[in-house]
Amino acid sequence: MIDLLVAGGFVRPATLAKGLTFARPQPGRWRQALLLSIGGLLVEPLAWIQAALIRNRLKRLQLPDAPLIVIGHWRSGTTWMHQLLGCDPTLATARNAFTIAPQIALIAKPILALWLKRSMTKTRPIDNVKWDFNDPQEDEVGLARLSFDTNMAGVAFPQDYLFHFERCVLHETRSFRSDLLKFCKLTWLHDGGGKGQLLIKNSAHTARIRLLLELFPKARFVVMKREPIDSIRSLVRVKQTLAELVGLQAAPSEATQVAETTQAYQELMAAYERDRELIPPGQLAEVDYDSFIHNPLHTVEGIYQQLNLDSWRDAAVPIRRRIEARSDYRAKPIKLEAEAEALLQELLAKAGLGRGQELAREGG
């Protein structure tokens, strides 16, 4: 149950109510619906108290103007990059003990940290990666507690994934800008004590370059790039796992997931390429996944140099320790059903995307 709560529990009642205007939980998914919603209902009075206590601080708070933002399609190394950059003691970022319930995380900080420290599983439910209460977490996971206008809406309702992807990732809803800015301020209040800059990781932000530059004109971007077939194949498995864990609808077939994930990949990366030129010189570092996995320390040091980050002296030792602690990690091979794999190769070949085209020729 703890994995479900970390992934999607403590949703605010208003967020849940908006979600129910789009769809209802299917029969057989009411257990997930109950667990996702009851925590949020129970802590809502604490959310009102936190909001009252910090209202004036939020209004006065000026965020650092040059956040470091990790983007790139899901399953392209963004999490590992976030974990390493999150070791930098000068960077504040969203962490599991915050994103599980940002509406109360400031006033309940020691309680949430102690509870998660004692109860969290040793590895993430979607893969074999070690994690703990203080590990960095993707912004979208925390935002989903406060707003239904995120990519996580399509995780809650996996049969409607493309609808919510178009609505919340490729386009910006009326309230999302203010929700995002508020979430960044909450992140800073939670983790920013004694630190100098904000670190953000969110794959959905790959399509939000224009919005991010309007909020943070000096933002520095780290863009992770991986072979499309590997990234999509891995995300299909993750989406199926999350559908079982937190989905309010039954998971689509693997073939459907492949078709939808491939379409979303193309749209996400097209949005990035369209707006990439808006990023000023010196504020963008594009990172090859294979090079990063082969030599993470060298890659991260290169990012610090390329983006003129001045905290490498503080960051080098804790980053090296994090790499050494993961030296025994081995990624689990990803194998799709035969029909889904054939469809993936066919779609990527038609799109002329990387190794999918080569594998389709070999298979033919």
DSSP helical segment count: 18
CATH class: Alpha Beta
Helix content: 55-70%
How many β-strand runs? 5
The CATH architecture: 3-Layer(aba) Sandwich
The CATH topology annotation reads as Rossmann fold
Summarize the structure.
The protein is an alpha/beta fold and 364 residues long. 57% of the residues lie in helices and 6% in strands. It is built from 18 helices and 5 strands.
Report what the structure shows:
This protein has a single domain, classed as Rossmann fold. The chain has 364 residues and is an alpha/beta fold. The longest helix has 31 residues, at 30-60. 57% of the residues lie in helices and 6% in strands. It starts with a helix and ends with a helix. It is globular and about 55 Å long. The protein has helices spanning 2-8, 13-20, 30-60, 78-85, 96-99, 109-119, 139-146, 153-156, 161-170, 176-191, 209-215, 228-246, 254-275, 289-294, 296-306, 312-325, 338-351, 355-363, and strands spanning 68-71, 91-93, 197-201, 220-225, 284-288. It is built from 18 helices and five strands.
Topology readout:
Elements: H1 2-8, H2 13-20, H3 30-60, E1 68-71, H4 78-85, E2 91-93, H5 96-99, H6 109-119, H7 139-146, H8 153-156, H9 161-170, H10 176-191, E3 197-201, H11 209-215, E4 220-225, H12 228-246, H13 254-275, E5 284-288, H14 289-294, H15 296-306, H16 312-325, H17 338-351, H18 355-363
Parallel strand pairs: 1-3, 1-4, 2-3, 4-5
Keyword list:
single chain; 364 residues; alpha/beta; Rossmann fold; 18 helices; 6% strand; disordered C terminus
